[in-house]
Design a protein that fits this description.
It is built from 27 helices and 23 strands. It is of the alpha/beta class. It has a 10-stranded mixed beta sheet, sandwiched between helices.
């Protein structure tokens, strides 16, 4: 197989800034070959293949080689006529041409169909030089550039305009209507939506994509788009042992399908490769026609080299866009748990919101030393908690942090004003009220903030007036935004106001049970599955993600079962060694072959895999694989994994994304 030595040299010499600016990340040749083997099927004559982000031509070469297998009587020149490579980088396309022709001296660059342009300036007719049904490709394959949405801000319309063509005449549901794709989507999402337009009915798309679309909010929109226009044949992920460089990457295999019944009847395979596979092996795994037993949410096929969770596309479409990554990453027993009726979203019984965002913790968040230095009175201080990082108790009763709280003064002044006043006038009146009450120290501190430029901050400038943080609610439960090796929640006994490094959880029903569920090892496992892995092994959950984390449904429990959870949870909060008892009480109502020891071992393995890095395969990680291997082909999960403890928010004024 051609290993693309020219592309490798080009990649090595490309400056980091240019590689990042173009979103260039190269694909292992075996992966490109496997995608092409699946996407390019035999037909009368060579199929028509498009690579919309060709780079040095790795997919174009793999497509040419696959065409040679499917159309053995075609000449090399005829094969090249059926491969179209598009890229904005002319130098990369020169390498594509060289890679496609270097084995045949009778061929030249003129025999290669390369287009130096943005893919979003192209249409099927312009690339194929024809119209109507003939202006359609049989396969679209490639590795779209990974450009973050922030880098598209000045040019976002260029990437989104093609969405106007989807939908009934006069309507643009995917551009700005009821099915609108999020404007926060990264560029690769638009390569998927535009790429499907180039396919004939039944044509196949095979892309290498970041795995983010399986778990982010904008990814939910992309999922729904796919359910509306394609049969999603498979999503393939990788363990570190399979392809170390692709652990945060997935392969999307989809067919264009305009028949809603056919889309609903399709089955989507979520494949996790545990070992490297040959191109033919990848195509065989993806191409197997799996089924799901009637009435079952999924089917499980576990092998030594890979695991497949098969889900009816009808079920996926009915759920709409949602978290999907757990189908690839969750140990087998937890796949069944997440999809079971015994779990519900956390926000079924709690309101989840992010903590108080000050815009400038250096000014608004004070410790005892700051309070003493400025001689600030209790009347303008709200006891607060910045982080759970250093907290070693599950019940928080004391604090040495405070938020500057001038909201009562602001509201009192506002109520005494007959006509509305602007921010500047309101600020003046509040200062006057403070002066009348003898709070010169507070005024000195406000003047200090103004001298330091605090009011000009982006978030601070939105306050009315700038020194007013508004209401500072204190939740019942403090739940971190970021986690490291410590994963636990804290009962906010002291009623402290958290910064936005902490999520607020206010339980609305089953107040005697739900907080304890958040300290169970099952909850810790769900956090590992629901969160996004950040740099340095950190785990992050934004507010909307935490809201949707599955928890045991207390409404389905008997009084005795709720009582067992409550008693064990209270003992744990009191400092007793009651984690085992709590986990046992949480597992007991669930119909799952999972012991407390397996649950805790599974969480510990998942945590270690995150912390230690994908390149280190520890014995605990092997334990996860062993538990998967114990699963049976079909729909009945086997037993599983384990625990950790809590973390917190890091850094000043974490945003909610």
């Amino acid at each position: 197989m051609d290993e693309d030595p020219l592309g490798a040299r080009y990649e090595a010499r490309l400056p980091d800034a240019r590689r990042e600016g173009l979103g260039i990340y190269y694909t292992p040749p075996a992966i490109a070959a496997g995608i092409c083997e699946w996407a390019i099927r035999p037909r009368d004559g060579p199929a028509r293949v498009l690579d919309p982000a060709a780079g040095s031509g790795r997919f174009a070469v793999a497509a040419r080689d696959r065409l040679a297998e499917t159309a053995p009587t075609a000449t090399r020149r005829e094969l090249l006529e059926h491969v179209v490579a598009v890229d904005v980088d002319r130098a990369a396309l020169d390498l594509t041409a060289s890679n496609l022709t270097q084995e045949d001296g009778s061929l030249s660059d003129r025999d290669v169909r390369t287009v130096a342009a943005s893919f979003f300036d192209c249409s099927p007719g312009t690339l194929l030089g024809s119209v109507g049904d003939e202006a359609a490709f049989d396969a679209v394959v490639g590795n779209p550039p990974y450009l973050r949405q922030e880098d598209l801000s000045q040019d976002r319309d260029h990437y989104r305009d093609h969405l106007r063509t989807y939908g009934p005449d006069g309507e643009q549901p995917y551009h700005d209507g009821s099915r609108k794709l999020s404007t926060r989507a990264d560029a690769y999402a638009y390569f998927v939506t535009h790429g499907l337009q180039f396919l004939r009915e039944g044509g196949r798309l095979g892309f290498v994509l970041p795995s983010k679309w399986l778990d982010t909010r904008y990814g939910e929109d992309l999922q729904e788009f796919l359910y509306d226009h394609a049969t999603v044949t498979a999503v393939v992920g990788f363990s570190a042992r399979a392809f170390d460089a692709m652990v945060d990457t997935v392969l999307l295999f989809a067919e264009r399908c305009d028949d809603p019944d056919a889309r609903a009847d399709a089955v989507t395979d979520f494949v996790r490769l545990n070992e490297p596979v040959e191109p033919g092996g990848l195509a065989d795994i993806v191409g197997e026609n799996r089924t799901v037993p009637e009435g079952q949410p999924f089917a499980l096929d576990t092998r030594e080299a890979y695991r497949v969770v098969s889900v009816p596309q009808r079920r996926l479409a009915e759920r709409g866009g949602t978290k999907l990554g757990y189908y690839l990453t969750a140990p087998s027993p937890f796949v069944g748990l997440v999809d079971s009726d015994g779990l519900v979203r956390l926000d079924t019984y709690a309101e989840v919101s992010f903590g108080n965002k000050t815009g400038n913790n250096g000014f608004f968040l004070l410790d005892e030393g700051d309070v003493a230095k400025w001689d600030l009175p209790d009347a303008v201080l709200r006891p607060a908690v910045r982080s759970l990082r250093d907290i070693d108790t599950r019940r928080l009763e004391t604090t040495d942090r405070y938020l500057l709280d001038l909201h009562p003064y602001v509201e009192a002044v506002r109520e005494g004003v007959e006509a509305p006043v602007d921010r500047s006038e309101l600020a003046t009146r509040v200062k006057d009220a403070l002066r009348e009450d003898g709070h010169e120290a507070v005024l000195d501190y406000i003047r200090h903030g103004e001298a330091e430029g605090v009011p000009e901050g982006r978030t601070v400038s939105r306050h009315t007036p700038w020194f007013n943080l508004g209401e500072l609610p204190a939740p019942e439960v403090l739940h971190p935004v970021f986690y490291d090796e410590r994963v636990f929640t804290v009962e906010n006994v002291g009623g402290f106001a958290p910064t936005n490094a902490i999520q607020r959880v206010d339980v609305t029903e089953y107040e005697d049970v739900v907080p304890h569920l958040l300290n169970s090892t099952l909850h810790k496992v769900m956090l590992e599955l629901w969160g996004r892995h950040e740099g340095g092994g950190a785990l992050q959950l934004l507010t909307y993600e935490l809201s949707s984390v599955p928890i045991l449904d207390p409404a389905r429990l008997s009084g005795a079962e709720r009582g067992a959870i409550r008693r064990a949870g209270e003992r744990l909060l009191d400092g007793a060694a009651a984690q085992h008892d709590l986990d046992e009480a949480v597992l007991a109502p669930l119909d799952v072959a999972l012991s407390v020891e397996d649950l805790q071992a599974a969480h510990e393995a998942m945590l270690r895999r995150r912390i230690d890095g994908a390149g280190t395969v520890s014995e605990q990680v092997r334990h996860v694989d062993a538990l998967d291997s114990a699963g049976r082909a079909g729909n009945e999960p086997s037993g599983e994994e384990a625990p950790g403890t809590a973390g917190d928010g890091v850094g000043d004024d974490v945003g909610d994304g």
